[in-house]
Amino acid sequence: MTLLIVAFYLAILTFYLGVLVYALPIPISGLKRWGPRLINDAFFIATLASSIELIISVADYIRMSLGGDWNDFFYSIRGLLFLRSLFILALSSISSTISRILPGFSRIMSVGLNILIASLYSLTLIYFLGMIVYYSIATIASLGITLMAIPFRVARNAGAFLLSFALVFYIALPLYPHFVLLLTTPLPRTTLNLAIVYGDVTNFLGYKISSGYIGVKIGEEYIGPAKLEPGGRMFIFIPRDYMDEQAIVYFDVTGHRFYTNVSGTPLSNLCTTRLTAYMCQINIEVKGLIYYSNGIALHVHPPPLSVENIIENSSSISLTLTSDTDTKLYVSAVESYSINSVLVDGIAIANIDECKAYEWNWYNVKGATYIIPIPSGHHDIYISFKINSFEGLEPSVENLYPGKIIQYNISWIDALNYLTSSIYLEIISSILYISLLLSATYGLSKLLGGGAKLRLIP
Amino acid sequence: MDIVDLIKDLINKVVIVSWLLFLLTWIIGWAIKGSPIPSSKVRRVGQGLIEDAIWGAFWVAIGTSIFWLITYISSALGTVLPNPPVPQLP
Q: What's the pLDDT at B36?
């Protein structure tokens, strides 16, 4: 605001300087022509300075009608930046591991890596330009007008350039993602577009589940099982096209796929936070499961009122269950577990093997489920078992999800196309776009009086 | 705010100087126009000086109203800028 006040007063000063030039008794025509010039300048700048807010809102309107959105812009550039950096990390770790065997490999990889790093630079440049223009458009525009207001057209070109820079970039920079789309549609893009879905996993009673496996069924395809990170954090890579299709999320342990709160809705509708276009946070609530750890799962149906005091160690699990109806406790354990006894309120169940209901195959691990009927009320349950061997408690690595993605057929040609299109796309498109915008800036600044034949004021 | 005060000060000085100069230029102009120099180019110089002096006086009188008009329109559109200073004779 101060800048605009300064600009306004400078315009008034220019006006009176023009009047002074009119009043000079020196009859040199070159000097006298400055009189009307200065007066016209003064009116023009005064009008600009007082209507700059209107001009900025017109620019806003034009931007919105062209379809540019600053939030979308920042969001997609951030996502691109994140993916590029992940890509660079992955490539450089691959190159360093392979170059221990083949020493020259790192040279070839460094060509690709250098170009990737250059594309990261140009993306960061666009992000930075976007931040400057979005957060300080008023300041830049006011500074431009103030420079234009200096008498005798000293800084008029500079001011006109600043003002048109601010306006053109404010309108057109958010259209950059659309521009990139325009450039990429003829190029092939493969299924390597992945989104990351992450979140916490809790059971239906609200307790956090600290280990297990998550699987997502989308259409006919089952993506999973993906092991939970230590601490119970889910982290799955899902191809981006699948995020918009109806998905059912299962908690896949001990031969059972437990239903969760995600059944039949597209995942993109459920993201609680979406930091970038590629990251989605969804919190999963598993139905029916009380506890899972290392190949033994406790689940119950119909659901009880509460389960408390779950204490477990390497040979026993104890819990307190309160239910208002007769319910059944299912103990699903892999075959390395032998259940010694189950005590309900201190009284042992007579024959455990009679409670064994069925056996199952959980990928490559066999196991069985025991059903223990629990009457309604408040009960203390104590299950003691013996783990015969600590191997084979959970499915082996080749059945797990991130391992499976490498088995998909990604041809080398596809990978090369994707690599070249994604690397060079960012460099070329950002340079092209910035030069387009700069030449528009130059044209607008000529219109505002930067010194050309066609001018707004003579 | 120092810059604004500086500019205001300059404006006042310029106005004082230009009022004085008007009178001077107008007198010089008529003097040249009415002088017995035979060359018509010189008389045209005088004519030019008189015209410019009158134009200048005209703009000074009108300028304040035009600036007021600009501030009025902009305040009607929403921005509020300070009123331009009305220059006073000493």
A: 87
Which chain B residues have any C-beta within 8 angstroms of a chain A C-beta?
Answer: 1, 3-4, 7-8, 10-11, 14-15, 17-19, 21-22, 24-25, 28-29, 45, 48-49, 52-53, 55-56, 59-60, 63, 66-67, 70-71, 73-74, 77-79, 81-82, 84-85, 87
Nearest to B50 by CA among B20, B24, B25, B73: B25
CA quadruple A147, A152, A154, A157: dihedral, nearest 10: 70
Q: In angstroms, how far is CA A430 from the centroid of its own chain?
A: 20
Rounded CA gap, A25 and A308, in Å?
A: 101
Model ipTM value: 0.84
Contact A381, A318 (CB under 8 A): yes
Q: Nearest residue of B to residue A17 by CA position? A: B14
d(CA A225, CA A365): 14
The answer to whether B79 contacts A12, with C-beta atoms less than 8 Å apart, is no
How much is the pLDDT for A185? 62
Spatial neighbors of A128 by CB under 8 A, at least 6 apart, are none
Cα–Cα–Cα angle for B54, B56, B57, rounded to 5 degrees? 65
Q: What is the pLDDT of residues B17-72, one digit of tens each?
A: 988 888 899 898 898 888 888 888 888 888 888 888 898 889 888 888 888 888 88
String of DSSP letters for B7-75: HHHHHHHHHHHHHHHHHHHHHHHHHHHHS----HHHHHHHHHHHHHHHHHHHHHHHHHHHHHHHHHHHH
Q: Please, which residues have CB within 8 angstroms of residue A51's CB and are 6 or more apart in sequence? A: B74, B77, B79
Report d(CA A40, CA A368) in Å as an integer: 92
CATH 2.60.40.1120 is right for the domain spanning A194-290: yes
Kindly list the residues from chain A whose CB atom is less than 8 angstroms away from the CB atom of residue B48.
27, 32
What CA–CA distances, in Å, run from A366 to A233, A339, A393, B60?
A: 26, 15, 9, 100
Confidence of residue B89 (pLDDT cuts 50, 70, 90): low
Positions in chain A short of pLDDT 50: 190-191, 403-408, 452-456
| Cβ-based burial of A427 (10 A; exposed 0-12, middle 13-18, buried ≥19) | middle
Give the domain ranges of chain B.
Answer: 2-77
Query: pLDDT tens for residues A69-81?
Result: 898 889 888 888 8
C-alpha distance from A10 to closest chain B C-alpha (Å): 7
**CATH 2.60.40.1120 segments of chain A:** 194-290
Measure the CA–CA gap between A208 and A200, rounded to whole angstroms: 8
Beta strands in A33-166, from DSSP E residues, in sequence order: none
β-sheet bridge partners, residue A284: A201
Sheet strand arrangement including A347-348: A306-313, A316-323, A377-387, A337-344, A347-348
Give A262-273 pLDDT, tens digit per residue. Answer: 888 887 777 776
pTM of the model: 0.60
Q: Would the pLDDT of B90 be above 60?
A: no
